[in-house]
Amino acid sequence: MKWAPIQECKKLARTRRGFYKCAGCEEEVPASTKIEGSRRRTNNVHVDHIKPIIDPAVGWTTWDDCIENMFSELDNLQLLCTACHKAVTDEEKAIAKDRRGFYKTHPNEYPCYTSMKGRCNNPNKSDYHYYGGRGIKVCPEWEDSFLSFVEDMGPRPEGTSIDRIDVDKDYSKENCRWATHKQQCNNTRANTYIEYEGVTRTLSEWCDFTGVSRGNLSHRIKNQWTVGEALEVDPSPSRREITERLKQKQKLEKLNAESE
Ligand SMILES: [Zn+2]
User: Fold this and answer.
1) Mean pLDDT of 138-166
2) How far does the centroid of ligand 1 lie from the alpha carbon of residue 92, in Å?
3) Is 142 within a domain?
4) What spacing in Å lies between the alpha carbon of 78 and ligand 1's midpoint?
5) What number of other Cβ atoms are within 10 A of residue 204's Cβ?
6) Residue 255 domain flag
7) What is the whole-number distance in angstroms between the Cα of residue 68 and the centre of ligand 1?
8) Which domain holds residue 139?
9) How far apart are CA 169 and CA 161, in angstroms?
10) How far is the CA of 2 from the centre of ligand 1 (A)?
11) Cα–ligand 1 centroid distance for 87 (angstroms)
12) pLDDT tens digit string along 99-127?
């Protein structure tokens, strides 16, 4: 943004070529730093509003306030190094978080609720693929109301997170419980994702899709069939081939055990 006071602020904070004085830690800091393991450099100084554009303690008010704060004059600007800028931003975020009601009243449950909705509804989330991407939804009662979520689930015991009993079904009162990580791992169905040519589905989805029975499919995978063979896309391996693969696997396991 070419708002003149920003250039002015940078100019005033400049100490010498490539160096600026940070208004937070009051150190002289380089304008850019090397990115570790790369030849590129990243910007290390940031012109920041002293009074934030949106007051974290109040939240959004009007566009006029927002614009007025954004295009503020030099006396509301400061130059910060990356570390100080992050510290200020984190502090503001914490204030804003505290302001929002459900974080305050249900600090243990609300983050679980928001991340659950994110996984199911926001394609930008890294794990969307396994949830929303597979058609897993949040039931309408919970989708609309955090309070009915809390009412149905009860308080979250420490060390637990939300677990679906049947991993192929939606998030709902009937299908969810609070469970520890260990409990969730023991829920073996949670782990039976199978990838084939870039498509990840659960075991049961592959069964529906290909008509291979569940028992057959898991038996084949355990017995070293490739996914293509197990799904009957590729021809089945011969008995001799299977014996060969099992031997190979045992050999590998033995080697691994010895090297540990
Ligand atoms: Zn600093």
Assistant:
1) 90
2) 17
3) yes
4) 11
5) 15
6) no
7) 26
8) 106-190
9) 17
10) 23
11) 9
12) 777 877 888 898 889 889 988 988 887 77
- Going from the Cα of 30 to the center of ligand 1, the distance in angstroms, rounded, reads 11
Answer whether residue 157 is part of any domain: yes
The residue that leads in pLDDT, 57 or 156, is 156
| Dist. CA 48 → ligand 1 center (Å) | 12
Please tell me whether residues 133 and 79 are part of one structural domain. Answer: no
Q: Is residue 99 located within the same domain as residue 114?
A: no
pLDDT in tens, 38-97: 888 889 999 999 988 888 877 777 788 888 888 888 889 999 999 999 999 998 888 887
Distance 88 CA to ligand 1 centre (A): 10
State the pTM of this model: 0.43
- Report the domain count for the chain: 3
Q: Is residue 260 part of a domain?
A: no
The Å distance, Cα 13 to ligand 1 centre, comes to: 12
Residue 238 C-alpha to ligand 1 middle, in angstroms? 67
- Asked whether residue 24 falls in the same domain as residue 97, the answer is yes
Check pLDDT > 60 for residue 19. yes
Q: What percent of the chain lies above the pLDDT cut of 90?
A: 27
159 and 144 belong to one structural domain:
yes
Centre of ligand 1 from the C-alpha of residue 32, in Å: 13
